[in-house]
Amino acid sequence: SSLAIGTTTGYRLFSLSSVEQLDQVHESNEIPDVYIVERLFSSSLVVVVSHAKPQQMNVYHFKKGTEICNYSYSSNILSIRLNRQRLVVCLGESIYIHNIKDMKLLKTILDTPTNTTGLCALSINHANSYLAYPGSATSGEIALYDGNTLKTACTIPAHDGPLAALAFNSTGSKLASASEKGTVIRVFSVPGGQKLCEFRRGMKRYVNISSLVFSMDSQFLCASSNTETVHIFKLEHLTDSRPEEPPTWSGYMGKMFQAATNYLPAQVSGMMSQDRAFATVRLNFSGQRNICALSTIQKLPRLLVTTSDGHLYIYNLDPQDGGECVLMKKHSLLGSGKMEENKENDLRPPLPQSYAATVARQSTVPSTSTMPGYSEDGGALRGEVIPEHEFATGPVCLDDENEFPPVSIR
């Protein structure tokens, strides 16, 4: 329910508490050409990287308007990931892991396979701070790393071709991946790396999947690409939980196909067992980079799509029947922060209230006491200490506003 965007003039932070209202929480014009801005959940800790200094990471307390610290690296920063326990900086051929409570460098993973896009994923569950990144530049191997114990967990041979997208679910127990072909999305268990299921996004053409994300309850997985279609897959197996249905022609055919897979070659049966999209969105544009999120706003499940031209689209997702998602509102992210009225009348009648009951689930947040921070003697294992850095006078402390660690994920 929080959105951060980098712009040519700085960065902006938004709060998404309702479909109608887009509230601008903060705007900063101190650093131009921001291409990375990551906020620690709904706290005041923000990490920023700009094209003016692409090798420098700046960490701010934006409500106080103060800089906590900054670190410089040997090459351009390609991506940054953070949770309550770890801050991960990904370069083209190395990864740095910091302890977020005092920003101390804990580990440098050197000589990682060439990663020109900075592809990596970090579990938002700090008790399971697993990190995933490409284990090969030529194949779809995933390196799974434990960010708490600072040890390699396993490698997963996920795809034949190079990886294009990685995403953990909210508890850090599942990992989704897609290759550069973008035709198949696979979900693996963490930390074991066993394949749990796979979804076929399409067969006719290769696409560049730019966004892969789970819903907070891990029931849905969303994938967007450079095409006009966004796919949402359902992870739960309905055949295991649905009561016995009255016999129908389609039911008989389904059972026949299910039985037939036992006698078919592995490749063919695998193709038949792959689930297709549970729900879809047809965007009114293609070829534009976008990022998606599955969220619950006003007690209803929503699909959020942000685009590189500075717009936010909010769709309703029916968690029971799926199908085509309904566009509810379009907002401008580059205006004054107020909502932009849609000329095509995006507002649709509200869905029945029973719809909300199906998704009103309590999300459990692990206790922050289960994983204490690393002590000072944790040290930087392997690799040199970052040469240029300006450290804060004391450890990072946001406790004065009861913000750190955040008590809940909103």
UniProtKB/TrEMBL annotation:
SMART domains: WD40. Its main location: membrane. Keywords: Autophagy, Lipid-binding, Membrane, Repeat, WD repeat. SUPFAM superfamilies: WD40 repeat-like. GO terms for cellular component: phagophore assembly site membrane. Residues 361-381 are annotated as: Disordered. Pfam families: PROPPIN. It is a peripheral membrane protein. GO terms for biological process: protein localization to phagophore assembly site; response to stress. Signal peptide: none annotated. The keyword 4Fe-4S does not apply. It is found in: Preautophagosomal structure membrane. Gene3D superfamilies: YVTN repeat-like/Quinoprotein amine dehydrogenase (2.130.10.10). Belongs to the WD repeat PROPPIN family. This is WD repeat domain phosphoinositide-interacting protein 1. It comes from Colius striatus.
